[in-house]
Amino acid sequence: MSSAHRRDAATTRAAILRAGVEAFTRFGFDGVGVREIAQAAGVSAMLVNRYFGSKEGLFAEVVEVSMTDRTVLGGDPATLARDIAATLVRRTSPAADDLSPFLLMLRSAANPRAAEILRENIERHVEAHVHEVAPDTRGTDRAAVALALIAGFWLLRKVIGSSALNETDEKTVEATLTRLFEVLLPGPASRG
Amino acid sequence: MSSAHRRDAATTRAAILRAGVEAFTRFGFDGVGVREIAQAAGVSAMLVNRYFGSKEGLFAEVVEVSMTDRTVLGGDPATLARDIAATLVRRTSPAADDLSPFLLMLRSAANPRAAEILRENIERHVEAHVHEVAPDTRGTDRAAVALALIAGFWLLRKVIGSSALNETDEKTVEATLTRLFEVLLPGPASRG
DNA sequence: TCCACATGTCTACAGTCGTATACTTCGCTC
DNA sequence: GAGCGAAGTATACGACTGTAGACATGTGGA
């Protein structure tokens, strides 16, 4: 038996990728080593380099998949602000442990090479996706500010662990966030 | 001559601390080594441990001073939202290189020990300072959300380098931010 | 002047990192 | 069933990390 795995390149590659998503999201690019990732995938460390070229190559693909299969934005424009606020508060709750692409970004952005990969993927996936929802010129920068708000909220609540956000009534914070997203999102014809 | 420095413990300690602020803000806790910091201060690496106990000890003091002598918040409540937005946009401009405590936080938060130090200092300095300005219960969580917005904006614009925020007219972004801070800050009697 | 102590440096150690090279083992095909 | 290429492992190397211990040096007081 030993590890009971038949030799299958695609399966092994997928296992490494999945372990990479989890590890990089939890500990950041500099916070985890290839040996640790490989062990979580049940393989030897060198397979990371065989299948992804390098640690940086694996990270690039991790960012790619993490930012692609997002289940975050979208929905009815009428309740969009409320929905985003509710989802954000729920997924950043202290109990929830969530492999959010925002966490991946926040915990890896300190490394310049990782930051460059993140920037390129954000522009290609997230901001492009926003451009579909809000094709007008004004919407672009407002969506970017919304992104900043979401990222900052995730940072303070889950990475730092701010007591001001964790010891307050979630409904209160959610209402505040809803008001902000109403200002930012194109739905309710907010005139500046 | 050699280094032309007289032996002065206080001066040397201050030089290491200053080099630490710069290095940790630019590269984050994990992104810089004690040898590099010591070289920037013009001393040997072991002096860091002599004066601050360890790298982590130096970081704790760096966070302390960086979050103490802030020149960010404050001012006339009537124009507070506009002032904060203007300052934020100006200091995150691509040309400006700024040793902001927000950058220190963003680039070091991935490390759990650094995150703990940051959390403790934020609660002790920033949130306490906010509590003076807005002593009412409702203001606390709104100020925390404002903090999240500022941090996220700094992240996307300066750490990631988002093109959506850097290629947009600064006045447009500044207007958007002003509207958000008007919602968040206690000044204009915003009713929810 | 000279000694004692504070100040600063040198060397070294044990560990981790990413990854290149050489090797072994399995699985499929003829 | 033998061999051949793919899949996976083992070892090692050089660079780097934080920091402990021994050593050197300058400086103020006697």
What report would you give on this structure?
The structure is a homodimer of 192-residue chains. Chain A has 192 residues and is mainly alpha-helical. Chain A folds into two domains: 3-64, Arc Repressor Mutant, subunit A (Orthogonal Bundle); 69-191. Helix content of chain A is 69%, strand content 0%. Chain A has helices at 9-27, 34-41, 46-52, 55-68, 80-91, 101-108, 112-133, 137-160, 163-166, 170-184. Chains A and B meet through helix 6, helix 7, helix 8, helix 9 and helix 10 of A and helix 6, helix 7, helix 8, helix 9 and helix 10 of B. The structure holds a DNA duplex (30 and 30 nucleotides).
Question: What is the fold's blueprint, element by element?
Answer:
Two copies of one chain form a homodimer.
Chain A: H1 9-27, H2 34-41, H3 46-52, H4 55-68, H5 80-91, H6 101-108, H7 112-133, H8 137-160, H9 163-166, H10 170-184
Helix pairs in contact in A: 1-2, 1-4, 1-6, 3-4, 4-7, 5-10, 6-8
Chain A binds a DNA duplex (30 and 30 nucleotides) through α3.
Ends of chain A: how far apart? Answer: 67 Å
Task: Report the largest inter-chain contact.
Answer: A-B, 53 and 53 residues
What's the SSE pattern of chain A?
Answer: HHHHHHHHHH
User: Could you report the average pLDDT of chain A, rounded to the nearest whole number?
Assistant: 90
Number of strands of chain A: 0
**Low-pLDDT windows of residues of chain A:** 188-192
Percent in strands of chain A: under 5%
User: Mind describing the biggest β-sheet of chain A?
Assistant: none
Please identify the structural class of chain A as seen in this structure.
mainly alpha
Q: What percent of the residues of chain A sit in helical stretches (DSSP H or I)?
A: 55-70%
Number of domains of chain A: 2
- Described by the principal axes of the CA atoms, the overall outline of chain A is globular
Number of helices of chain A: 10
Rounded radius of gyration of chain A (Å):
19 Å
The quaternary organization reads as homodimer
